[in-house]
């Protein structure tokens, strides 16, 4: 059509009008759809300075600034908003920054940089790699494990292949085996989704299993006559790692020679490549449970000997047993008994399958104070020395800690008949003194008149029991405890005590507190406190300083050599032996090191102010102290081995002078003697009328009577 035609000219005004209308409705710059306002957003949670919350807090603030820019038009408004959400130490830091009015309060970027420097102590790249490498599923679900893995993987920078390998290695062993039938061609995300689906299917199959039977056929060791084998259904219940099959499906697979686990042909269920390995059941329990079994040391006391052994507590055992190996090794007597069949949890015979002998009544000691008479059945093929089963548990009803494997307490009947001190007192006097003998802290009570030889009567105070129990002074050679670099403090546990042990412990602590040897402690260290039996039947308190000793710098001061000491005695004819009272307790712990000796008891937490027994450096420290005290006497007429002093002379006149000098030196240094362990010896040569008479005759001079 010709543009100059009348029709075209008539349309031009309309086109111009349309253009004007369009421009009025859609001005330049508004051609795109108008931006919709952001929806309501929750405010970030207040931040108090916790490093693990720093990055998340800043992310929430950044999102709020981006989605609602009209609320925060300037950087200073954004900074003020962040500060309004701070509390605690984070608010104190921000207050200082705001009052300084520096660059950090003018630009958001500078403020956030300073903020991260102070509070964002997130794991660096190396620690993220370590966490990812060591991450395991453990007892968490696959979904929970996947969340942790994805979080670390995002910050690790690892490639896809490395992440797939790490994810597989962190899964539980059974799930890894089920995933082994799939190839490795899928991605990490596909592997994660596949593992979650497999775990869900396995869980659904486990839910289809009936509850385990509680019949006697599931006991670890059962006695019967004749043997009662468990039914097929009972055995099937033990297969908790397989899919539960209906009877019809089971028969179908058996007829077609298919695997009862995966349903494929060509192999049996025992050879199934998909089935997780199942630990074989031993004569007592499965290998998977060995780590959780409860063993504790016992002593078997017969008429001829005493045997140390380990006893297993097995609540599923129908009897109390002793291994034939232990009986044969130590020649423990055994007598014929009524024959009984014995079988394991699966109904299979144990050893020969028959028990025909038992031991006569033996004394079984558990710990220090629990004694009982018991007859044990002799069991073939037992991996435990002794098995204490359900009859023993029913009789004694002990309170066990299944976490630590300790016996915490005994039943009321045990307190009446089984719990007693290792040796019964033979007289009323012995009984009343027994608890006093249980302590190693010298008590000043009950001090008798001291009978010392007349020539040494001016030194009666050196033998005083009251003076010996005073808190000694600090000296240059106090016991120092230097810890190795990076040492970890001992963390002992509280051992349960019987009633006699509890009384002995209370007397020990009370006496030591009264004398100032110990004091209550707030130390972060704690060594264990327990008792061991003494030969005289008492209880000796012991503190387990082994963990502390491993972390202590060793003091290498030498102890005397016996051959050299004997050579010094050549030519001497008269000797006096002196024994220090409370030897180690005569040395103070160096100021500032007392907290390292802390020990814990059922009644409280204490630390030593004097040098206790059991420290690795105690013998060397005491030897160095004694050598310093008697340095000018050593190898002239004195030999010292830790707390024993031997004075030697060629004649009696010199000897009296030497003993007096030693006693004076002891007095000057606040050291005291135990008179009941002191004595003198006179060596008198006699004419050699025969080979037997050619040796010197030793005469004991009774100059040191007991008090």
From TrEMBL:
EC number from the UniProt entry: 3.1.26.4
Sample GO molecular function, one term: zinc ion binding
SUPFAM superfamilies recorded: Acid proteases, DNA/RNA polymerases, Retrovirus zinc finger-like domains
Domain CCHC-type: 259-273
Gene3D superfamilies cross-referenced by the UniProt entry: 3.30.70.270, Acid Proteases (2.40.70.10), HIV Type 1 Reverse Transcriptase, subunit A, domain 1 (3.10.10.10)
Record key words, sorted: Metal-binding, Zinc, Zinc-finger
Domain (Reverse transcriptase) ranges: 513-702
Organism: Cyprinus carpio carpio
Family membership: Belongs to the beta type-B retroviral polymerase family. HERV class-II K(HML-2) pol subfamily.
Lineage, broadest ranks: Eukaryota, Metazoa, Chordata, Craniata, Vertebrata
Cited PROSITE patterns: RT_POL, ZF_CCHC
Protein name: ribonuclease H
């Amino acid at each position: 059509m010709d543009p100059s035609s009348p029709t075209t000219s008539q349309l031009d005004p309309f086109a111009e009008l349309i253009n004007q209308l369009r421009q009025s409705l859609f001005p330049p710059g508004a051609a795109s759809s108008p931006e919709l306002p952001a929806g309501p957003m929750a405010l970030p949670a207040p931040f108090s300075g916790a490093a693990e919350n720093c990055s998340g807090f800043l992310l929430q603030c950044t999102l709020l600034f981006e989605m609602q820019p009209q609320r925060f038009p300037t950087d200073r408004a954004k900074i003020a908003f962040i500060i309004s959400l701070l509390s605690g130490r984070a608010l104190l830091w921000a207050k200082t920054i705001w009052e300084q009015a520096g660059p950090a309060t003018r630009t958001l970027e500078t403020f956030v940089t300073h903020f991260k420097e102070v509070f964002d102590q997130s794991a660096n790249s190396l620690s993220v790699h370590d966490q990812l490498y060591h991450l395991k599923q453990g007892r968490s679900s696959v979904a929970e494990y996947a969340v942790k893995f994805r979080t670390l993987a995002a910050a690790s920078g690892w490639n896809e292949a490395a992440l797939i390998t790490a994810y597989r290695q962190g899964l539980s062993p059974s799930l890894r085996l089920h995933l082994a039938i799939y190839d490795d061609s899928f991605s990490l995300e596909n592997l994660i989704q596949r593992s979650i689906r497999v775990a869900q299917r396995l869980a659904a199959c486990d839910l289809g299993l009936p509850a385990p039977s509680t019949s006697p056929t599931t006991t670890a060791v059962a006695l019967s006559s004749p043997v009662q084998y468990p039914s097929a259904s009972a055995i099937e219940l033990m297969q908790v790692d397989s899919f539960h099959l209906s009877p019809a499906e089971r028969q179908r697979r058996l007829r077609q020679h298919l695997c009862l686990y995966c349903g494929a042909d060509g192999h049996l269920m025992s050879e199934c490549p998909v089935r997780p390995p199942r630990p074989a059941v031993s004569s007592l329990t499965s290998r998977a449970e060995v780590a959780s079994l409860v063993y504790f040391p016992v002593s078997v006391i017969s008429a001829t000997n005493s045997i140390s052994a380990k006893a297993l507590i097995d609540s599923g055992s129908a009897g109390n047993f002793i291994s034939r190996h232990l009986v044969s090794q130590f020649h423990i007597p055994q007598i014929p008994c009524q024959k009984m069949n014995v079988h394991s949890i699966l109904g299979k015979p144990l050893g020969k399958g028959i028990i025909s002998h038992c031991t006569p009544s033996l004394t079984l000691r558990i710990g220090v104070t629990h004694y009982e008479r018991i007859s044990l059945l002799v069991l073939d093929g037992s991996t435990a020395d002794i098995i204490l089963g359900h009859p023993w548990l029913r009789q004694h009803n002990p309170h066990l800690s299944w976490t630590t494997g300790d016996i915490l307490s005994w039943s009321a009947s045990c307190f009446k008949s089984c719990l007693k001190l290792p040796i019964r007192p033979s007289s009323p006097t012995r009984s009343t003194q027994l608890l006093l003998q249980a302590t190693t802290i010298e008590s000043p009570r009950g001090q008798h008149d001291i009978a010392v030889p007349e020539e040494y009567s001016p030194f009666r105070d050196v033998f005083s029991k009251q003076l010996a129990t005073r808190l000694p002074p600090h000296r240059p050679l106090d016991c120092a405890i230097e810890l190795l670099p990076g040492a970890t403090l001992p963390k002992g546990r509280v051992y349960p005590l019987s009633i006699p042990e509890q009384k002995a412990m209370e007397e020990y602590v009370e006496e030591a507190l009264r004398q100032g040897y110990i004091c209550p402690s707030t130390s972060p260290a704690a060594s264990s406190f327990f008792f061991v039996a003494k030969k005289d039947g008492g209880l000796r308190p012991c503190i387990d300083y082994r963990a502390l000793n491993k972390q202590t710098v060793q003091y290498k001061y030498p102890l005397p050599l016996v051959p050299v000491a004997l050579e010094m005695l050549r030519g001497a004819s008269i000797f006096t032996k002196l024994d220090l009272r409370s030897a180690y307790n005569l040395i103070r712990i160096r100021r500032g090191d007392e907290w390292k000796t802390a020990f814990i008891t059922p009644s409280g937490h204490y630390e030593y102010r004097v040098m206790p027994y059991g420290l690795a450096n105690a013998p060397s420290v005491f030897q160095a102290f004694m050598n310093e005290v008697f340095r000018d006497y050593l190898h002239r007429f004195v030999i010292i081995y830790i707390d024993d002093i031997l004075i030697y002379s060629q004649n009696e006149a010199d000897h009296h002078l030497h003993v007096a000098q030693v006693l004076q030196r002891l007095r000057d240094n606040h050291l005291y003697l135990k008179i009941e362990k002191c004595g003198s010896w006179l060596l008198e040569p006699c004419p050699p009328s025969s080979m037997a008479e050619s040796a010197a005759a030793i005469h004991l001079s009774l100059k040191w009577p007991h008090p």
